[in-house]
Amino acid sequence: MDASEDNQPKEYTMSGGGGGGMTSIHVTALDGLVNVNSLFTIAVFVGVSIAAPGQRSLEGRSTCDAGPDVARNLLVFEVVSFSFFLFSSLVAQGLKLAINLLNSNDVDEAFRAHINARVLRLGMLASAVGSVMGCLFLLLSMVDVIQIRLGLLSCGSQSTVRAVATLVTLVCTALAVYIATIFYAFTH
């Protein structure tokens, strides 16, 4: 082996016939997406369990207590968020299954998956969009949790405003980075 061979890029295609560029990198990316969705799904259920309707806020003024409309919105946002995370995870799991079947030597030809690169890209994009939408609805639900626990935003409580501002700033920044990364990955 000479020195020029050592500098060649390594192929990460999974073993098996007919892989056509379906790599372990795709499976790793999909695994990461499913793991993150699982963590966010836990956050959905924690948000529902922490905030109950009729709960008094820590603000101390009854006019700052959240009403049933905030609790209703919380529940709706949590359910929609969970739905997007579940959609994203199921799409990602389906793609992983297809990639693994496509690249497996142990599967009969009749059961081998035939996944098109365009379908893989669209599926990964759909899964990423599902995660982003789930995060947005989780953000809205967390704002409602904050209002139930710390008092309504309309009361102008410093703790409520700071908590919501921090949450919205950090989550929106992280989502912007995530979306930019996805855009870059799909255009290069």
Automatic annotation (TrEMBL):
Transmembrane regions listed in the UniProt entry: 32-53, 74-99, 119-143, 164-186
Protein name, UniProt field: (wild Malaysian banana) hypothetical protein
Organism: Musa acuminata subsp. malaccensis
Keyword Membrane part of the UniProt annotation: yes
Keywords tagged on the record: Membrane, Transmembrane, Transmembrane helix
Superkingdom assignment: Eukaryota
UniProt key word NAD: no
PANTHER family for the chain: MATERNAL EFFECT EMBRYO ARREST PROTEIN (PTHR33430:SF6)
